[in-house]
Amino acid sequence: MNPLDGNALAGDLRELFAVDVTVARYTCAGCGHADAVATLLLWGHGMGQVARCPHCSDVVLRMVHAPDRVFLDLRGSVRLELPLAGS
Amino acid sequence: MAIISRGFGGRRRESVDGLPPGQYLTHDFPVLSAGPTPRIPLDRWHFTITTETGQKTEWNWTEFLALKSEDVTTDIHCVTKWSKLGTTWRGVSLDTLLEDVDTAADYTMVHSFGGYTTNVPLEDLLDSKAWIAYKFDGEDLEPEHGGPARMIVPHLYFWKSAKWVNGLTLMNEDEPGFWEAAGYHMYGDPWLEQRYQGD
Ligand SMILES: [Zn+2]
Questions:
Q1: Is residue A1 part of a domain?
Q2: How many CB atoms lie within 10 A of CB A44?
Q3: What total of structural domains would you count in chain A?
Q4: Which one of A23, B107, B174, B185 has the largest count of C-beta atoms within 10 Å of its C-beta?
């Protein structure tokens, strides 16, 4: 089983955020690598989405869909940097 | 293009007596991967129990295989809603591994090669309720299913049965593991449908 790239997160993240988070830059908490969320390696595990750093393979982002809630775990990212519309 | 894998929910379902609520029966053995499958050479395999005071007990592969093993037939229940009945395993009971470990802790964190973790109360690993299995269906456990060795805690949802195990840490306080930190239930009893936090 091979991972998808982080672009496959776009649909799920659109439910949570008003902006396209896949164009945001993440900074990996494990190795400090920074790049667009779309470049993360996405493992579509049946229990949730697991997005790993392509540089060190640490988990940067996890998303779990319960029937009535979505959990987004970002402890693997130091920060997300989002471009603002119109700037 | 939302890619939300809801497990194997689209498949034909059988309703069967004796299944926990919300589960359906499957005859194959779905593989769920949260990352690359670790390939662990047997000469680098080890399993380490670390107590709350930092005392370590460790087995290498040869020492582990020399321990008393048991054949186990059990039903397994995945939180993605498939259940598989009458699976057969061979492994070492956690009762055997914990026999000479001196601890007053109530909780454990199970650790795996590749970084996976899951928390299980100590009492759920004792009294013939949990094993470290190295054979499935009479064959060596394949890497995709957690080989060389995986935890089996069949009375809890199957994410508690960590693949590629390499250690157990005893803890005074309960702490969330990999999926528990991301919204899944701290305990995970399939008969109570404890899937997510707050269930
Ligand atoms: Zn990294």
A1: no
A2: 19
A3: 1
A4: B185
Spell B12-45 as b/e; 16+ CB within 10 A means b. Answer: eeeeeeebeeebbebeeeeebbbbebbebeeeeb
d(CA B94, CA B122): 10
Write the CATH number for B100: 3.90.420.10
Would you say residue A59 lies in a domain?
yes
Size of interface A-B (CB pairs under 8 A): 76
Residue A33 maps to a domain: yes
**Rounded CA separation B188/B194 (Å):** 5
Count up the domains in chain B and report the number. Answer: 1
What the block records as the tokens of B47 is 């399993």
> Which domain, by its residues, includes B188?
63-199
B4 assigned to some structural domain: no
CB–CB of B79 and A47 under 8 A? yes
Q: How far does B5 lie from chain A, in Å, by closest CA? A: 5
Q: What is the ipTM of this complex?
A: 0.85
Closest-CA distance of chain A to residue B191, Å? 18
* Site of tokens 């987004």: A72
Domain residues for the domain of A37 are 6-81
Cross-chain Cβ contact B183/A48 below 8 Å? yes
